[in-house]
Amino acid sequence: MKAFITILTFVLLSGAQLKAQNSPAIVWDQSTLKQVAPLSGSKSANYARMIQLHNGNLLCVYESNGGVECTQSHDLGKTWLKPVVIASAVSGVNMSVPEILELKDHSLLVSYNPRPHKINGSWDTTKHFAIRTKKSYDEGKTWRDERLIYEASYQFEDGCWEPSQIQLPNGEIQLYFSNEGVYTHSNEQNISIFRSHDNGLTWTQKPEIVSFTPGHRDGMPVPIILNGTKEILFSIEDNAGGQFKPSIIRNSFNQNWQKTVGANDPERTYALTPKLPDTVYAGAPYLRQLPGGQTILSYQSTFGRNGNWELACMQVAVGNSKGENFVNTATPFNIPLNKHGLWNSLCVLNDGTIIALTSTDAYNSYTAIWMIKGHLINKKSTY
User: Nearest Cα to 36, choosing from 63, 16, 56?
Assistant: First the structure.
């Protein structure tokens, strides 16, 4: 049954490309399946993000034990070193959803999201949802220069979420995040940014709203700069049509988010071709670009599974060099229908190898971070 569902998924989502002579697709090498974290089963791990450093090593940041940790691999993912704690939990607050960026000076900038939780059934009004950053100047061995960039409410319903950052050619860092802290009387959420011009030591004071659909929840931004262009793209989960689906938001360097991108603006496009059924949930998208120009987009989906988003799994689609028309969805990890594969991400190596990362309980009795490697091929159409 699993094989049938996988084949059906591929056929249905690849239909728009069947007339093409060459159709890009990702082939996943199951022999590279590897657990990244935790090193033992004494705790779980979630929400991994990975980059390849300038020295070729891999660095992975993730949530574990209520805090943020990182681990490194010096052999392209075959083995992983003992983790380093970046930010520890404090009483009533977990440190969550980290993202990592190597800056032009080779220092590392991690962003993360302190998230209060109820204690004895009540919120502590002194502890707020927030966005923080921290830096490393020794390739992830030690971390310092912590900065508090933004605080939202102490309540879950009015929080802030999911930071992610890029650095422009002129050195400016833009940190994107989901913000519902300004909508205390509704369930709305926007994508906002802060800027830094000194490698993350100081930041602008007021968030700029770059994406918003009134009455809805733009969420989970992941930005890239398109290779060889002066254009910024970021993926979001967009529920303007009902269930969350991936959309792409874009601006040129000249535009530079002077205007908020709304629901019907040309700078917002639905990502997938063909469109998924309205009943399918497809959230938490993650955007990257390959050296050859093609873009890739992962998301967690209930397509071919059941309607419970908490049992979604990772799918990866291939787009063109402009970040459009993502097709040929592939499923990197074999996740049983009663298990989950959530909060996924992608890492592209210098040689074009794609690494998919998922948080799953499919291979253990606890949730762990797993990776698998894939390569893009041009698949000859039979039509």
Answer: 63
